[in-house]
Amino acid sequence: MSQTVYAEFPCKEGEGANLLNMFREMAPESRAFEGCESFEVYTGSDNPDDVVIWERWTARANHEAFLAWRTETGVLDAVILMLAGEFRISYLDIQDDV
Q1: Is it the case that residue 97 has pLDDT exceeding 90?
Q2: How far is CA 65 from CA 11, 29, 86, 92, in A?
Q3: CA 77, CA 87: separation in Å to the nearest integer?
Q4: For residue range 32-57, what is the model confidence (pLDDT) as tens digits?
Q5: What is the CATH T-level fold of the domain 3-92, as seen in this structure?
Q6: Residue 51 near residue 11, CB atoms below 8 Å
Q7: What pLDDT sits at residue 70?
Q8: What letter would DSSP give residue 91?
Q9: What is the 3-state secondary structure (H, E, C) of 2-69?
Q10: What average pLDDT score do residues 80-92 get?
Q11: Residue ranges of the domains in the chain?
């Protein structure tokens, strides 16, 4: 079963556009990473400084490898500088019986 990942990035005022541009540039590499099934980026309708990534991976281990790679390349450090608070990553399991 695929692993759904929700990542929320609360940016400092005015930094949402910068983070969105960074994610736009990185999207092809992210989508090509082993196990990535989908990679979508959203901004808040009411607050464009709220940036969210909605991802689907073949397995959680694939996303964890992706996150480790992004950390090793220094991307995560650059992202953190744009944030107003901590980013949050949630691993979600579909509930087919609902």
Answers
A1: no
A2: 24, 13, 21, 17
A3: 12
A4: 999 999 999 999 999 999 999 999 99
A5: Alpha-Beta Plaits (3.30.70)
A6: yes
A7: 95
A8: E
A9: CEEEEEEEEECCCCHHHHHHHHHHHHHHHHHCCCEEEEEEEECCCCCCEEEEEEEECCHHHHHHHHHH
A10: 96
A11: 3-92
Cα–Cα dist 3/57, whole Å = 5
For residue 1, what pLDDT is reported? 79
Give CA–CA dist 75/34, Å, rounded: 18
pTM of the entire structure? 0.91
Neighbours of 20 (CB within 10 A): 18
How is residue 83 written in tokens?
A: 């944030």
Between CA 70 and CA 92 the distance in angstroms is 21
In whole angstroms, give the CA distance from residue 39 to residue 54. 6
- Helical (H) or strand (E) element with 79: helix 75-81
